[in-house]
């Protein structure tokens, strides 16, 4: 299992428990996000606290679901990023697109 989920208020927190650095983990991450989307969740917080690496297999899924959630009036946030994930987000300007939020 790559993720766990928890409802906090009106937001669903999806905790990423492994690095997303290959096709399998990318597809598992996509499946987890799709479940939340099809259930009608509107606000998602992605928590990368247990993750040290995310590459294009994960970044692409984040962008795909950012557009999907935005299209239904929803929002995606990230929990405060650790240094290794921040180093990936900032050069791609994902930190400007997806706001950080405290849990």
CATH superfamily, please? STAS domain
Can you count the helices?
A: 4
CATH class: Alpha Beta
CATH architecture: 2-Layer Sandwich
Query: What amount of the residues lies in strands?
Result: 15-25%
Category by helix and strand content: alpha/beta
Rg, Cα atoms, Å = 12 Å
Annotated CATH topology? Transcription Regulator spoIIAA
Portion of residues within helices: 40-55%
Let me know the largest β-sheet.
4 strands, mixed
Q: Identify the overall geometry.
A: globular
Indicate how many domains the architecture comprises.
Answer: 1
Mean pLDDT, to the nearest integer, reads 94
Number of strands: 4
> Taking strands numbered 1, 2, ... along the chain, how are they ordered across the largest sheet?
1-2-3-4
Following the backbone from N to C, one meets helices and strands in this order, namely EEHEHEHH
Low-confidence stretches: none
Distance between the termini: 22 Å
């Amino acid at each position: 299992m790559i993720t766990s989920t928890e409802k906090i208020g009106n937001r669903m927190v999806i905790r990423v428990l492994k690095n997303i650095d290959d096709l399998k983990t990318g597809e598992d991450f996509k499946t987890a996000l799709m479940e939340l989307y099809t259930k009608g969740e509107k606000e998602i917080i992605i928590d990368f606290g247990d993750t040290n690496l995310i590459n294009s297999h994960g970044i692409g899924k984040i962008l795909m679901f950012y557009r999907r959630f935005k299209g239904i009036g929803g929002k995606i946030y990230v929990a405060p990023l650790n240094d290794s994930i921040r180093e990936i987000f900032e050069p791609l300007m994902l930190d400007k697109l997806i706001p950080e939020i405290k849990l």
